[in-house]
């Protein structure tokens, strides 16, 4: 391609008269060209944001690329309410984009995270010009995977996101009052700099005090959660869709579930690498998956643009008998599959034993294991599928957590042969607590021969309880693809906190409102008639 022409701040009128603004990247030449649209709340001119979109590359691949600030953000007019206006605004933008000079009339969408969700919302209105979407690393059910997980608050994500969004909110709110703007921005910056310390620790979490202090955008707002819930939109979507996910992304299961729902119709494709939300690199925490494990190895953006261009020029998604492409961690290889989940994977129970063993050899002898959970001293978040400024995501040595008295650890014997686990992992526990509510956290780890214990997946379930009464609890650890090598061991942790990723359960009936907390005595029943095990899909 000879070159690219860029038009900045092009006005895009919405049906209610509000004007949004977009930058248009156009290939040089007569065209006509297919058009792709990305709609962002993070500033269409921000260099950090543009690295995830690369509209220049899109234009060089023969696409007109439109990057737009959503309503109420940066160059666009209106009031920003997270996710609430994105369906209609997205549909209006798509029809506008189809009429751009040089446009072929066929429009697609691309982008990750919030930029992925707005695609589902727009597509749900079935705009005539929309022919394909590429919603990657994005959420699905807002009450389980965005603002909450298993009933617990996604504190690290929601609170840091609100603070980040606040700078543009304050700039608009105090326009024309430089002194007040300077004062408020300094206070907000101090709160952001308080991560990971006092900013995460402030209570209560039922009505977030930091969000209330500055009246910040809130992902846990009921209107936001209702608008962003993908299943409500997806049932009306018929266009092909490309889904890119990362094993260490906070939205990994959501992206996979979006794919499995879309795969009921032709034209869906899934790519999952060993990546986190903001870095498609081979280095994830302490583990280096190498060049082969990086997004560059499969050219994720180039793959996305080529796939979209095929959809928009032919009217159909590329033929693909193996639409699922997975990176198998531990094996260090990419593999193509005809389906997800894999039908050849066999769900296998690994029972938690009284002697800290993890075994497939039937039910161990019955036993009762106990620990004390103090919300004033929670188990720290060490890596995982997270997105927050700190602690970082990825795979880290968990021995700092495993040495604590409030973490129960169960480990297999040394593996005599490789075991591949590919699919969704769950845990079933028989537990009791002496309070009215508590949390149960389960984590799967890969233990190396030298004793290093690396997190693979984890999950949390918040429960209401009858004090002292044993009950069954299910914990969804989400999906992975991991080869546990011969000579390694498989380990499971059971505990009651992972802070600050998830908010602390204060073990009191009114703790979410008042911040009142108490120490809880926790009981895990294993062996015998107790159903305490993890289920691993073994290939």
Protein architecture, described:
By secondary structure, the chain is α+β, with helices and mostly antiparallel strands. The protein has helices at residues 47-50, 55-60, 86-98, 114-124, 155-173, 178-193, 198-201, 209-214, 222-228, 230-234, 252-262, 295-298, 300-314, 399-402, 511-514; strands at residues 4-13, 19-27, 33-40, 64-69, 103-112, 130-136, 148-149, 152-153, 241-248, 268-276, 283-284, 287-288, 324-328, 333-337, 346-352, 358-359, 367-373, 408-411, 419-433, 437-447, 453-464, 471-484, 489-495, 520-526, 533-538. The longest helix has 19 residues, at 155-173. The model has no long low-confidence stretch (mean pLDDT 96).
Class of secondary structure makeup:
alpha+beta
**Helical run tally:** 15
Q: What is the gyration radius calculated from CA atoms?
A: 24 Å
Assign a percent range to the helix content: 10-25%
Brief synopsis:
This protein has 539 residues and is an alpha+beta fold.
Keywords, please?
single chain; alpha+beta; 25 strands; about 35% strand; globular
SSE arrangement:
Blueprint lengths: L3 E10 L5 E9 L5 E8 L6 H4 L4 H6 L3 E6 L16 H13 L4 E10 L1 H11 L5 E7 L11 E2 L2 E2 L1 H19 L4 H16 L4 H4 L7 H6 L7 H7 L1 H5 L6 E8 L3 H11 L5 E9 L6 E2 L2 E2 L6 H4 L1 H15 L9 E5 L4 E5 L8 E7 L5 E2 L7 E7 L25 H4 L5 E4 L7 E15 L3 E11 L5 E12 L6 E14 L4 E7 L15 H4 L5 E7 L6 E6 L1
Helix pairs in contact: 3-4, 5-6
């Amino acid at each position: 391609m000879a070159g690219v022409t860029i038009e900045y701040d092009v006005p895009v009128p919405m049906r209610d008269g509000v004007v949004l603004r977009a930058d248009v990247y156009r290939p040089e030449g007569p065209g006509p060209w297919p058009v792709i649209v990305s709609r962002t709340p993070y500033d269409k001119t921000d260099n950090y944001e543009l690295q995830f979109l690369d509209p220049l590359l899109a234009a060089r691949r023969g696409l007109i690329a439109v990057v737009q600030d959503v309503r109420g953000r940066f160059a666009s007019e209106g009031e920003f309410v997270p996710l609430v206006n994105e369906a209609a605004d997205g549909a209006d933008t798509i029809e506008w984009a189809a009429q751009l000079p040089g446009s072929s009339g066929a429009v697609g969408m691309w982008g990750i995270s919030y930029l992925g969700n707005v695609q589902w919302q727009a597509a749900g209105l079935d705009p005539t010009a929309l022919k394909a979407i590429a919603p990657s690393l994005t959420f699905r059910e807002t009450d389980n995977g965005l603002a909450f997980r298993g009933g617990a608050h996604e504190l690290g994500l929601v609170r840091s996101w609100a603070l980040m969004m606040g700078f543009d909110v304050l700039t608009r709110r105090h326009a024309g009052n430089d002194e007040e703007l300077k004062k408020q921005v300094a206070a907000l910056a101090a709160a952001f700099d308080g991560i990971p310390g006092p900013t995460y620790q402030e209570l209560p979490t039922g009505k977030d005090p930091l969000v209330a202090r500055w009246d910040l955008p809130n992902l846990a707002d009921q209107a936001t959660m209702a608008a962003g819930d993908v299943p409500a939109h997806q049932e009306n979507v018929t266009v092909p869709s490309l889904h890119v996910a990362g094993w260490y992304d906070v939205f990994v299961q959501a992206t996979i579930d979006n794919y499995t729902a879309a795969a009921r119709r032709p034209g869906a494709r899934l790519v999952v690498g060993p990546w986190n939300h903001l870095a498609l690199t081979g280095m994830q925490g302490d583990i280096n998956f190498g060049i082969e494990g990086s997004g560059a190895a499969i050219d994720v953006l180039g793959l996305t643009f080529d796939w979209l261009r095929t959809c928009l020029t032919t009217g159909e998604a590329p033929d693909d008998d193996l639409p699922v492409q997975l990176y198998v961690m531990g094996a260090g290889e990419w593999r193509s599959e005809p389906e997800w989940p894999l039908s050849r994977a066999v769900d296998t129970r690994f029972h938690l034993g009284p002697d800290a063993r993890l075994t497939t050899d039937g039910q161990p002898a019955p036993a009762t294991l106990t620990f004390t959970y103090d919300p004033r001293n929670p188990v720290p978040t060490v890596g995982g599928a997270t997105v927050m400024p700190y602690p970082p995501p990825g795979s880290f040595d968990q021995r700092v957590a495993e040495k604590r008295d409030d973490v129960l650890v169960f480990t297999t014997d040394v593996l005599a042969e490789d075991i591949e686990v590919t699919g969704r992992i769950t845990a079933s526990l028989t537990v009791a607590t002496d309070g009215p509510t508590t949390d149960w956290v389960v984590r799967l780890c890969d233990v190396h021969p030298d004793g290093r214990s690396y997190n693979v997946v984890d999950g949390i379930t918040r429960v209401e309880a009858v004090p002292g009464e044993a009950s069954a609890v299910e914990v969804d650890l989400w999906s992975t693809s991991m080869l546990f090598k011969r000579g390694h061991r498989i380990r499971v942790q059971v505990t009651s906190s992972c802070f600050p990723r998830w908010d602390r359960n204060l073990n009191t009936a009114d703790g979410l409102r008042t911040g009142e907390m108490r120490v809880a005595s926790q009981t895990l029943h294993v062996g015998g008639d107790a159903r305490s095990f993890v289920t691993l899909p073994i290939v």
